[in-house]
Write a structure and sequence with these properties.
- The protein is mainly beta and 304 residues long.
- The protein has four helices and 15 strands.
- It has a 15-stranded antiparallel sheet that branches.
- Strand 13 and strand 14 form a beta hairpin.
- The N and C termini lie far apart (46 Å).
């Protein structure tokens, strides 16, 4: 290691400590972890490729057959996160005016996936669904097999979680992208180590192959069923029996997702890029969400 690089790393570590960001050293963790995302990462041949990158997907959300909102799933940038190159993955779900009247949804999830290992370096989520609210993040230190997480309540009170993790860990959002990188064979389960403040095994059942139609076309798919814990999900957090239809090719694009809620069946269907909305989005909706400016604006909207 050159003197210049060593000096830079020491200075960066000192700066993080001064800002209270020495997360694993017992300092008070910050409210948000975006400060760990320090800019774009330099290109490298050592990065493991995602099935599709860059990627921007848009979805129409239905309650039964009624359109109730839109969602986005994006992985467009490789950034430096806590000193490592990471794919920055973002998902956002937002109910429309009709749904807002009885069940308002504003969900924003981020994951930072190690570009060299395809394991999670950390996640952040700000969730608001009806009366349910959650704001939390976690950061993983794979080298030392430890994590720190913070859960903030609507009233501003918070709780810190610390513990150990396996050498390779995923969060909910990174799990979807990891599954897409695997060979999917009906009848053959995939098991992942997941951490959402505690460690637990995510068992993904590969159910069957199925041909389906969505607003974006007709697709040959592989249907998977991740066995998620209560109040963990993609686009909708409080559902159960999540199923995902992935294209039966090397891209494994999620073209449909469905989940059961206490008041009905919710589906997210892929829509073609550039098409008109199938339902009027909530005021100010913008589904290109990975830019720092738009991310900050959306967080502000979700503040209790």
């Amino acid at each position: 290691m050159s003197r210049a690089l060593k000096a830079f790393l020491l200075a960066a570590a000192a700066a993080r400590t001064a800002l209270g960001l020495d997360l694993f050293g017992g300092a008070a963790p910050p409210e948000d972890i975006d400060v760990l995302m320090t800019g774009p990462a330099a290109p490298s041949q050592s990065y493991k490729r995602l099935p599709v990158f860059p990627e921007k997907l848009r979805y129409q959300i239905f309650l039964g057959v009624v359109p109730v909102g839109q969602a986005a799933l994006e992985a467009e940038h490789v950034v430096e996160f806590n000193g490592r190159p990471a794919y920055h993955i973002v998902s956002r779900a937002e109910s429309n005016r009709f749904c807002d009247a009885f069940y308002k949804v504003r969900d924003f999830n981020e994951s930072w996936m190690d570009a060299r290992r395809l394991a999670s370096l950390g996640y952040s989520k700000i969730l608001s669904e009806g009366r349910f609210y959650r704001r939390e993040w976690a950061v993983y230190d794979a080298a030392n097999r430890r994590f720190v997480a913070r859960l903030t309540n609507r009233d501003g009170s918070y709780k810190i979680f610390r513990g150990t993790v396996p050498a390779s860990i995923q969060d909910i959002l990174s799990s979807l992208f990891y599954i897409r990188s695997q060979k999917l064979v009906p009848g053959r389960d995939i098991v992942l180590d997941v951490n959402t403040k505690t460690n637990w095994p995510l068992i993904v059942r590969v159910l069957k192959r199925e041909k389906i139609r969505t607003p974006s076309g007709t697709w040959r798919t592989v249907v998977v069923e991740p066995g998620l814990r209560k109040r963990e999900g993609i686009f909708v957090q409080k559902g159960r029996n999540l199923r995902v239809w992935l294209t039966d090719d090397e891209k494994k694009i999620p073209v449909r997702m469905s989940v059961q809620l206490f008041f009905g069946h919710v589906s997210a269907l892929l829509i073609p890029p550039g098409t008109a909305n199938l339902a009027a989005p909530a005021k100010g909706a913008n589904y290109s969400v990975t830019s720092p400016k738009k991310t900050g604006q959306f967080r502000a909207e979700l503040s209790p």
